[in-house]
């Protein structure tokens, strides 16, 4: 299978519609969460501008454990409620952080990161993990990113089908 990341056009909302369609095409017919997390993180890393890390942390029943990602090596384990990822997992609410240095308890895996967005992955009421994006720019992520990334996270969750996680 050959896949080309299509150039995005239009405003942010239109670009996320295009990215969501590309994520659907990448995950179609595949239910393995590691394979789909790897492809979705690669898609986002190469399609979005001004990001320095894109990936998944998967919940192992106790804490978040780094999964497929693109970027520099990452923190391996994150307790629920700790840092931006742990907060998103514990609250099950997307966290948009304009300045990570102002976020109490931020975990600095990459000193270049200035802003972050983390989308919790919840399926049938169960925490699966989080989708995490970092940027070296402050205020990189806004509401269009939140809406778009939540839609892409839903594509990832739907790709799991009825398979146990």
UniProtKB/TrEMBL annotation:
It comes from the Bacteria. Residues 32-161 form the GAF domain. PANTHER family: FREE METHIONINE-R-SULFOXIDE REDUCTASE, GAF/PUTATIVE CYTOSKELETAL PROTEIN. Belongs to the free Met sulfoxide reductase family. This is GAF domain-containing protein.
């Amino acid at each position: 299978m050959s896949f080309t990341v299509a150039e995005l056009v239009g405003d942010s909302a239109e670009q996320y519609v295009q990215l969501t369609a590309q994520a659907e095409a990448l995950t179609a017919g595949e239910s393995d969460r590691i394979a789909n997390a790897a492809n979705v993180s690669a898609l986002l890393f190469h399609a979005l501008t001004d990001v320095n890390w894109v990936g998944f942390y998967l919940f192992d029943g106790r804490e978040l454990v780094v999964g497929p990602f693109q970027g520099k090596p990452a923190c391996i384990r994150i307790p629920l409620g700790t840092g931006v990822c742990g907060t998103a997992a514990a609250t099950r609410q997307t966290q948009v952080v304009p300045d990570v240095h102002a976020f109490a308890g931020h975990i600095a895996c990459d000193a270049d990161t200035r802003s972050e967005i983390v989308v919790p992955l919840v399926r049938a009421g169960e925490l699966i993990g989080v989708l995490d994006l970092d940027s070296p720019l402050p205020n990189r992520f806004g509401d269009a990113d939140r809406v778009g990334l939540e839609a892409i996270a839903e594509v990832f969750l739907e790709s799991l089908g009825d398979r146990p996680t």
